[in-house]
Amino acid sequence: MNQKKTSSRKNQIRNGLRADKGATAEADGKTMLQNLLQGTIPNAHIEISQLPRLSGLRLGLINADFPTGPLPAEVMRAVIAQPAYWAFCWGSGLACAEWILANPALLRDKSVVDIGCGSGVVAIAAKLAGAAEVWACDNDQDALLATAANARLNSVDLSLSADLAELHAHFDFAFLADVLYDKSNLPLLDVVKPLAQETIVSDSRIRTLPDPNFTEFFTTQALTHPNLGEFDEFKTVRFFRYYRATS
Ligand SMILES: C[S@@+](CC[C@H](N)C(=O)[O-])C[C@H]1O[C@@H](n2cnc3c(N)ncnc32)[C@H](O)[C@@H]1O
């Protein structure tokens, strides 16, 4: 796997684990994720979860009974400074992975990039569906480490990148699942569109996209896992697609 610009703390975590040759891949990945999570939320832990509706796909995620009450000020500051998005499988990612696994012929032997990969759920589903090459991209280094651990857990091989600008425009498919939760991420669409023949956005936070070239083609219901108790309005996941014009 390619791993770019990883901080020294995370290199230490990874290298320490790699040196531990006797550990199983699962225990290895779980320990790494546990160390990452505790940097943000000390009284939570990692569980290896079987995803609902995604038979066979497992991820290391925050424990289902994670602390939901008021957090101590320093924990709150850490959560705001470095939210562990990767410790959840967001409803839009879960729905997207489910859609991919229900339509494997679409991705078979194709090249795919998952932008804002978080836990890696979409990238892993793409690889399990038979994609030839899958890149997972996230600007959070912890998300890339989580994706690497989760890829190993599911015995798939992914390439990783922290920087969209480093990706070459050669993909058959680009996916963005729950990346537009922050309106300031909307300009990402213009960066992603040239990267792939087809861009697919799955999102429960937005009802329409500002770019009329994206057309809505599918709607489903999904919950974030573990359940965050989100408002009903965020349980509907909308899928939009954009086809790049061929010259
Ligand atoms: C809510 S999570 C969704 C994760 C995953 N796609 C899923 O559905 O479970 C959003 C992810 O997008 C990443 N992200 C946000 N802005 C980004 C950007 N400009 N480039 C790459 N990743 C980004 C965050 O770090 C986070 O991991």
Overview of the molecule:
The radius of gyration is 17 Å and the shape is globular. The chain contains 8 helices and 9 strands. Mean pLDDT is 88; it is low at 1-22. It is of the alpha/beta class and 247 residues long. The longest helix is centred in the first third of the chain and has 14 residues, at 25-38. Helix 2 runs antiparallel to helix 7 (141-153). The protein has a 7-stranded mixed β-sheet with strand order 5-4-3-6-7-9-8, with helices on one face. It has a single domain, classed as Vaccinia Virus protein VP39 (Rossmann fold), CATH 3.40.50. Bound molecules: S-adenosylmethionine. S-adenosylmethionine is lined by residues 85-86, 89-90, 92-93, 115-119, 121-122, 137-140, 143, 164, 177-179, 181, 185, 188.
